[in-house]
Amino acid sequence: MPLADSALDSHSLRIVQALAEHGSITAAARALGYSQPAVSQQLKRLELRVGLALVERVGRGVRLTEAGRLLARHARTVTGALNAAAGDLAELQGLRAGLVRVAAFPSASATIVPRLLADLGRRLPGLSITYVEAEPPEAVALVRENRVDLAITFSYPGDLVDPHRDSAEGLSVTTLGRDEVLLVVPAGHRFGDAESIDLGDLAGERWIGGCPRCRGHLLELCERRGFVPDISYETDNVAAVFGMVGAGIGVAVLPTLAIDSVGARSGVLIRPTRPGEYRTLHAVTADGAIGVPALGETLRALASLTVSAR
After folding, report:
1. Exposure winner among 91, 123, 193, 261, fewest CB in 10 A?
2. Where is the HTH lysR-type domain (predicted)?
C-alpha cells in the first residue's frame, strides 16, 4: 500500500537524519534543540505513519533499522534541498540570515579561518557560521554526510591518500591556491646562509615528522632526492617542532600556514626548498551548493582571502 503524501514531512526527516549522524536519541535531540521525549514521540508517530520500525533497541541505546537507514539517506537529499531553498530566500532578504557550517584542518584554524569569520562577520552580521576542525579525509566525509557545508582541505602532489579522488566523487572541489612547504633548520646550520636548500643535501640529518599525511609527503620528497630520511622524532605540534629544531636535534619541513599558525620563533631558520615544494588548498562542497547564497558568498570570501595571502 503506497504511503500517503502526509506520511513524511521535513521535521520528521530532520530527526531521522540527526539520529543517523549522532547515534542516539539523546544526542539527536541535543543537536536539534528538542527534548529527548519529544524526539522519541516524533519517531513513534513516524513509524505508525510509514508502517515500519525505524529504530531498534541495542543494549541501552538504539540504532536505525534498514528502513531507518534508507530514510536517512533520502533525508540528506531532502534537507539539502530545503537548505538551498532557505538560502535562496536569504538572498532575497539581502543575506540578513543564513547558516554555513565549515570544517578545516588545524593550521587553517589559526590562519585562514579567523580571517574568514572576521570578514564575514563584519560584512554580513546576520550570517551564522559554525566551525569544526578536521583533517582533510574526515572533512570531505563531513561534506558528503551533509554535516558541514564547506570543507577547507589540502593535498600534496603525488599524495597516495589524496582525499580529493574517490572520496570526493560527486562533490565539488575548487582549488584555492598553493601553500609553500619550507625547511626549518637550527640557527647556525651549515646551510643557513643559503637562499634555498636542496633536500638531498640534508640526507644525513635527523628529521622531525609531523602528521601522518605530512610524514608520508616527507618520505615521498626524500625518495625523489634519493634517500630515506631518518625520522627520529614525531609530533603534530608545530610549536614542538620549532622547539626541537631550535634545540639542534633535527630538521623539518612545514607548510607556510603551519609556520604562520605559531608565529616567529627564535633559534631557527626558515628556508625554501630547492626545487620549491608546496601543497594545494581546496574548498570542498556538495555539487551545486555554490548556488546557495550564503555558501556562495562564503566561498567568494575564502577565495579572496587565500589569494591575498599568497
Report:
1. 193
2. 8-65
